[in-house]
């Protein structure tokens, strides 16, 4: 009987070994023909005598393998930029006191001209209010554009870039029915020189 038992045990051992070799995923464990690991009555996996820690599977107590992190997306290529000249235009208005051609401040105009890569022209259009004769107001509007022109030249603006026009009391932007000092104050917006600056600026644009 002992000999029979040893023979049986040996045959079983060889059979299990063959099964293990046929199913390397569960190497180190006894499995059946469908690669299912045999378990004891306590739910433990049946290990062979040549089992090692490297043979441990998730089913038999190993920690699940962490999924490899997804590769970071490749950064988008930086857009190629280039310098380009573009047309630019800006308008300003200089206001005057009643019956005056005194220019108070042209620095906003000078600063804008300084921001340009190229100055094409500065157009001046002079106006007055409706108080006084047409002839007087025509002359006054001319004095006003001449005063602005002189102030710009003094600030370093090229004289050949300035074009001047005077229109007297034409093209009012304000109509007033007041009288006396109140009328003069109301008509202030008509006492003006309109300044239009044309040129080009350098800007960075995407290719």
TrEMBL record:
<dbReference type="InterPro" id="IPR036737">
    <property type="entry name" value="OmpA-like_sf"/>
</dbReference>
<protein>
    <submittedName>
        <fullName>OmpA family protein</fullName>
    </submittedName>
</protein>
<keyword id="KW-0998">Cell outer membrane</keyword>
<feature type="domain" description="OmpA-like">
    <location>
        <begin position="83"/>
        <end position="201"/>
    </location>
</feature>
<dbReference type="InterPro" id="IPR006664">
    <property type="entry name" value="OMP_bac"/>
</dbReference>
<dbReference type="InterPro" id="IPR050330">
    <property type="entry name" value="Bact_OuterMem_StrucFunc"/>
</dbReference>
<feature type="signal peptide">
    <location>
        <begin position="1"/>
        <end position="22"/>
    </location>
</feature>
<keyword id="KW-0732">Signal</keyword>
<keyword id="KW-0472">Membrane</keyword>
<dbReference type="GO" id="GO:0009279">
    <property type="term" value="C:cell outer membrane"/>
</dbReference>
<dbReference type="InterPro" id="IPR006665">
    <property type="entry name" value="OmpA-like"/>
</dbReference>
<dbReference type="Pfam" id="PF00691">
    <property type="entry name" value="OmpA"/>
</dbReference>
């Amino acid at each position: 009987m002992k000999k029979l038992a040893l023979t049986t045990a040996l045959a079983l051992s060889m059979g299990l070994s063959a099964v293990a070799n046929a199913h390397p995923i569960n190497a180190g464990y006894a499995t059946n023909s469908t690669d299912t690991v045999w378990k004891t009555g306590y739910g433990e996996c049946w290990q062979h005598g040549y089992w090692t820690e490297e043979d441990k599977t998730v089913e038999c107590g190993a920690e699940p393998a962490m999924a490899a992190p997804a590769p970071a997306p490749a950064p988008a290529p930086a857009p190629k930029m280039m310098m380009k000249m573009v047309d630019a235009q800006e308008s300003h208005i200089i206001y005057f006191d009643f019956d005056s051609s005194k220019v108070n401040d042209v620095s906003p105009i000078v600063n804008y001209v300084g921001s340009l890569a190229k100055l094409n022209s500065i157009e001046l259009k002079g106006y007055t209010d409706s108080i006084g004769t047409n002839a007087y107001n025509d002359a006054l509007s001319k004095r006003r554009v001449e005063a602005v022109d002189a102030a710009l030249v003094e600030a370093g603006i090229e004289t050949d870039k300035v074009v001047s026009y005077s229109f007297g009391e034409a093209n009012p932007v304000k109509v007033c029915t007041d009288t006396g000092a109140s009328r003069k104050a109301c008509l202030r917006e008509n006492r003006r020189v309109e300044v239009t600056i044309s040129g080009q600026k350098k800007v960075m644009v995407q290719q």
